Input
Amino acid sequence: MIRENLEKVQANINDACARCGRDPKEVTLIAVSKTKPVEMIREAYEAGTRAFGENKPQELKDKAPQLPDDVQWHMIGHLQRNKIKYIIDKACMIHSVDSERLAEAISAEAVKRDIKIPVLVEVNMAGEETKDGIAPEEAEDFIRKISRLPNIRIEGLMTIAPFTDNPEDNRIYFRNLKKLCVDINEKNIDNVFMCKLSMGMTGDYVVAVEEGATMVRVGTGIFGERDYSMR
Ligand SMILES: *Cc1c(COP(=O)(O)O)cnc(C)c1O
Output
């Protein structure tokens, strides 16, 4: 089931790339394995997946040692400062930097361990009150400020688009995130060269790829519905 789902999602990504003249190699499919058991992750791994996304630091920390070392773990969820230590040496990227205090704390922990960690800045494109993320109009200022911090590398932007039945509704947010990324790059801020765009989930990843996503985060479409009743 997981293998078939992965093939279907990858085929949809390839088709979307073909439609807009992109190379599918530019798009990383991140299999979002939150709440799912290690056996299912292993199944996806055997089918060739190497990039996995988790949104809870504790869960990432527990799962990482149970899978081979060549898995790339993406921290995609809200991160509290006191949990950074759980994931900083396990995650290949933190997608959800949305405050100066968080960026400073990630930087400090990275310095302490003498590692460099790639991060994305989370932007709340639709201005939803229930969502984390920097407002688009504040993103440049924010990036200027955190660009001076040691041992973090700002590699791009991330967004979680609104929940909708019609993915076309989210096209504008993906398009605007890409535009924001290009605009900020053109400011030539020291230490900032952003080219990664983490956008698109099960309901809207095809549209996100058409609008320039370089990473899509797909959970349900690969592993099936999540069951939160056991937690
Ligand atoms: C859960 C989650 C996803 C995957 O959601 P699906 O709709 O199941 O594909 C993507 N991104 C983030 C940040 C998530 O928390």
Q: What stands out?
A: The pocket of pyridoxal-5'-phosphate is lined by residues 32, 34, 55, 76-77, 160, 201-203, 217-221 (CB under 6 Å). Residues 190 and 213 are 24 Å apart (CA to CA).
